[in-house]
Amino acid sequence: MFKAKIFTLYPEYFPGPFDIGICKKAFEKKLWDLKLINIRDYADDKHKTVDDTPYGGGVGMLMRPDVVAKSLDANLEEKETVYYLTPKGKIFNQNIAQDIVKKNKVNILCGHFEGVDQRVLDTRNVEEISIGDFILSGGEMASFVVLDTVLRLVPGVLGNLNSTKDESFENGLLEYPQYTKPQIWEKLSVPDILLSGDHNKIKSWRLSQSEAITRHRRPDLWQKYKKD
Length: 228
Description:
The protein is an alpha/beta fold and 228 residues long.
């Protein structure tokens, strides 16, 4: 069973867990389990204070190191990696998702306010990751992206695990165009090659399409693909 722990200030963000799609189906089949850790439960004062003003001045508040560290230490085994969701982190991608699923567990720290005191990140086994170059109000929404991406790779979650192999990024390229019935729609026909039955030619066509799309839309991926 794949295990996920989410460290959050807002556990109510997580229904069901995830009363939708593959997350719900996989949970019902006992393929994964979710534990929500409310960081506020580890605050010592009666107001459950989790944040304070930053030293050196500046706008906003920071999540306190004592409270966050206490929540981590009480719920993690030794040497477990924590993924902290922050715009400063390295970009989350399919390779990172594949690394996570091999560990059979994921621990996600959801930040809020102006972030987390740096001392927590320096003293705990924290890896900073980002889902893109934009700002969210908290890490919960980003954690949905990470969890969904990883859970699709857990054996048994998808009906056919082979269905992930031709998806975008699996071979370093964006996915080729896909077509289904009807064969002719609004006077547009499915490419003849896909109706030929020649699997070698179809494979070659799909690769050429993936290469062309990647070269045009994601030159950064294309350069990396050529080097590899």
